[in-house]
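Sync notes, pocket subgroup
Present: LS, DG
LS reminded everyone that the earlier model was apo-only. Rerun requested with uridine-5'-diphosphate included. Inputs:
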Amino acid sequence: MQKYDYLIVGAGLYGSVFAQRAKSAGKKVLVIDKRPNIAGNVYTEEIEGIEVHKYGAHIFHTNNKTVWEYVNRFAEFNRFTNSPVANYRGELYSLPFNMYTFNKMWGVVTPQEAMQKIEEQKKQAGITEPANLEEQAISLVGTDIYEKLIKGYTEKQWGRPCRELPAFIIKRLPVRFTFDNNYFNALYQGIPMGGYTKMVERMLEGVEVQLNVNYLDDREKWQLMAEKIIYTGPIDAYFDFCLGYLEYRSVRFETEILDIPNFQGNAAVNYTDNETPWTRIIEHKWFDFHDQPRTVISREYSSEWKPGDEPYYPVNDEKNGALYEAYRKLSEKEEHMIFGGRLGEYKYYDMDAVIASALSLAEREL
Ligand code: UDP
């Protein structure tokens, strides 16, 4: 009856990496996905000769050499360096927060002057032990930068006041007292040439894949087909939301083809005020090094997830953390099932971390 060693639900990075490892260990695997395409949210599609990141911009960056070497087996990476620009009511600032940002904001010239400015503002705000995102932000970069570059963007992105958000979200961004606009502190960074979809296609070479099939619609059938199931869909959906809904932020993209070669001169421009309805505009061609005559841009609108929407960012607050924990306990009782990835573990995973996690599952399993 059981045709496969592993049924992998979800052809995103977690599922595809595990499938690749399992296949090469001689296992029989089947990957299914409810979307018409592989690659999950890193899916890219060519429009006007440009690789368009259909489910949001993905810039690969990692300090993990094993992961870097692993992905380089399936794609050649370009030398793209993420340096987003913040647009606050027409004033442009460099991101992440670095000497260019401090100079533009305050006219300071030396690192000492910048540190002093931040220290003053932090003192004035009276923060000693930051307890939420607002306090964390002010204690890292001061009130001016918080007000102009963080508050509006963050509240649009998360749909919640900064005082109610966990501090760790803002710690994702580096603060540097050097003139360095590289958004990431990572040893390795780049975008797969030819797009992420090609990279995932190569991972899945020789693996049986069925698209447009929803595991949850027919789980009895699928359960009989494989010895073990790797489930990378939303954990709460797996349990029919029996304990309640986990909250997510969703993102809607308005993508446009423009008959000009250059719209904003950069891959990402963040709109950090709270009046502009979108959080950022991505100009996809600048992820690569081409000179197509036209350009493709995507405006990103952040919204609260509701049933039927695509879940993007898990909301990692206490309430959702506790609910996830309750689902996780349930999942331990499910025989032959492994829950993994961003949705299976309800985790704000970067790509490299999701790959590392799939590789370590493969080590344990195979
Ligand atoms: N952030 C901000 N202003 C910006 C960019 C980011 O305040 O211009 C904050 C915001 O709270 C966001 C967090 O930094 O949620 C992490 O940003 P990151 O770019 O890592 O988010 P992602 O790339 O995952 O969307």
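DG: The mean pLDDT is 97.
LS: Residues 86, 95, 149-150, 153-154, 157, 169-170, 172-173, 270, 272 surround uridine-5'-diphosphate (CB under 6 Å).
Action: DG to write up.
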